[in-house]
Specification:
49% of the residues lie in helices and 1% in strands. It is an all-alpha fold. It has a two-stranded antiparallel ribbon with strand order 1-2. It has a single domain (34-381), classed as Glycosyltransferase, CATH 1.50.10. It has helices spanning 7-11, 30-47, 69-83, 88-100, 116-125, 135-146, 176-179, 181-191, 195-211, 239-252, 261-280, 301-316, 322-338, 366-381; strands at residues 212-213, 218-219.
C-alpha cells in the first residue's frame, strides 16, 4: 500500500486555524447552550486523557491506537460538536489530531473500524485543513474498490481468533454501518467520484438484508446471534449494536441526494427502527443492554447516547413526529447527564464487546464520550 510513506509529506501540509467555515455560536436558547456546555466540558476532560488510558477499565492496544475506532468515534463526536457551535478549541483539536496522525487511516484496508477516523479527516478537509489531507484515505478506498473482498457475510470465528474472521473484510457486523459508510459517501461528495458512494450503499444494503430482522425492526449484531436466546427465550438484540446502526443512518442520510431511491429507502428504515427504539426505552430514560430484556438491567450510556442522537436528529430532520419523539430524546438526554460521574468522566459505558453485558458506574470509554457529544449536538439543535 505504501501509505505510511505519505505520512511525513501530509503531516507537513499546512493546517490553518478554522476560519469562516468553522461554525460560530449564535446565542442558542438556554437549554441548547446547557447541552453544548456540558458536552464541551466532557470533551475537554477527555482531551486531557487521550494518551493516558488508565481511566478505562479494559484498555487494550486498540484503545491506545490514535487511529483505531475507539478513539475515532470520539473524534466523530467532536466534529458534530464543532458544527453545533462549540468554542474554537474543539475544531482545533480535530485538526491537530489529524496532523499528528499524518492523516492516515488505521492499518487494515478492508476493515470498517479502521475507516472511522477518516470521517474526522474528511470533516477537517472542509474546515481549515489542506484539502489534500484526504489523499491517504482515498488511496485506501481506491484499493478496496479495485480489489473487492470476495467473502460472504456469515460470521465464523476461526481457531486463530475473532480478528481473523474472514467476513470482517466486509460489513458483516452491524457496528460497521456507523464506522464506514459516512466516510465513503463523503469521499464521493468531496471528490465528485460516485464510485465510493455506490460501493457504500451496495454494502449497506447487503448488510441490512442479512442482519436486519423485519419482525423486530432491529439488527442482529452478526450472524452468530441469529439463533441465540436468553433464559426467557427472547432474541438477543444488543443495545449499542443497534445504536451504531441508527446513529450511523442519522449521519449517512444527510449525505444522500434528497428524493433519491437509496435515501427514501433509508429514511423508511430509520423511521421503522426509531419506532421500535422508542418502544424499548426504559422509564428512567436509558435503554437496556439487551433491548428486549429491560428487567434488572443496568444503566448503559453508550447505546442511550446513540439513540438520543439519532432520535433528536430525526426530529430536527422532519422524519420523526416531534410530539411523539421529543419526550424520548429528552429522557435519554436526562439519563446521559446523570451518567457524568463526580470526577468528570462519562460513566456507565459498556466496555468493548459484541453483546449485552453488565456495566458499572465508573466504566467509561472514548467511543462513549463520542456518542455523548453526538447526542448533545443533536439535542442542542432541537
Amino acid at each position: 500500500m505504501a501509505l505510511l510513506a505519505l505520512a511525513p509529506l501530509l503531516a507537513a501540509l499546512p493546517v490553518t486555524a478554522p476560519a469562516q467555515d468553522t461554525p460560530k455560536a449564535t446565542s442558542p436558547a438556554p437549554a441548547a447552550k446547557a447541552a453544548i456546555d456540558s458536552a464541551v466540558k466532557l470533551a475537554r476532560w477527555q482531551l486531557a486523557r487521550m494518551t493516558d488510558t488508565s481511566h478505562i477499565p479494559r484498555a487494550t492496544g486498540g484503545t491506545r491506537n490514535p487511529r483505531g475506532w475507539e478513539q475515532a468515534v470520539f473524534w466523530v463526536g467532536m466534529t458534530e460538536l464543532a458544527d453545533a457551535g462549540a468554542p474554537p478549541d474543539i475544531a482545533k483539536a480535530i485538526l491537530d489530531m489529524g496532523a499528528k496522525n499524518g492523516w492516515t487511516l488505521a492499518d487494515r484496508p478492508y476493515h470498517a473500524d479502521d475507516h472511522t477516523i477518516g470521517q474526522a479527516y474528511l470533516w477537517a478537509a472542509r474546515h481549515g485543513a489542506n484539502p489534500a489531507v484526504i489523499i491517504p484515505a482515498r488511496r485506501v478506498f481506491d484499493f478496496v474498490l479495485a480489489n473487492p473482498a470476495r467473502v460472504n457475510l456469515a460470521f465464523y470465528v476461526p481457531p486463530t481468533g475473532y480478528n481473523d474472521a474472514e467476513c470482517l473484510k466486509r460489513w458483516c457486523w452491524c457496528d460497521a454501518l456507523f464506522m464506514s459508510p459516512p466516510a465513503f459517501i463523503e469521499m464521493s461528495r468531496q471528490t465528485g467520484d460516485n464510485r465510493y458512494r455506490d460501493f457504500a450503499l451496495a454494502e449497506f444494503w447487503a448488510t441490512t438484508d442479512f442482519l436486519y430482522d423485519p419482525a423486530e425492526s432491529l439488527y442482529y449484531r452478526d450472524s452468530r446471534f441469529f439463533e441465540r436466546r436468553d433464559d426467557k427465550q427472547r432474541k438477543m438484540f444488543w443495545s449499542r449494536g443497534n445504536g451504531w446502526v441508527l446513529s450511523g443512518i442519522a449521519r449517512t442520510l444527510p449525505l444522500l441526494e434528497p428524493g433519491s431511491p437509496d435515501r427514501l429507502r433509508m429514511e423508511a428504515l430509520f423511521k421503522e427502527m426509531a419506532a421500535k427504539i422508542k418502544a424499548t426505552q426504559k422509564p428512567d430514560g436509558y435503554w437496556p443492554p439487551s433491548l428486549l430484556a429491560p428487567e434488572n438491567s443496568p444503566a448503559e450510556s453508550s447505546g442511550t447516547a446513540f439513540y438520543t442522537h439519532a432520535i433528536a436528529w430525526g426530529i430536527s430532520a422532519g422524519l420523526l413526529d416531534r410530539a411523539a419523539y421529543e419526550p424520548v430524546a429528552r429522557r435519554g438526554w436526562d439519563a446521559l447527564t446523570r451518567s457524568i460521574q463526580p470526577d468528570g468522566r462519562l460513566g456507565w459505558v459498556q466496555q468493548v464487546s459484541d453483546r449485552p453485558e453488565q456495566v458499572e458506574p465508573q466504566d467509561t470509554q472514548y467511543y462513549g464520550v463520542g456518542a455523548f457529544l453526538l447526542a448533545a449536538s443533536a439535542i442542542a439543535k432541537l
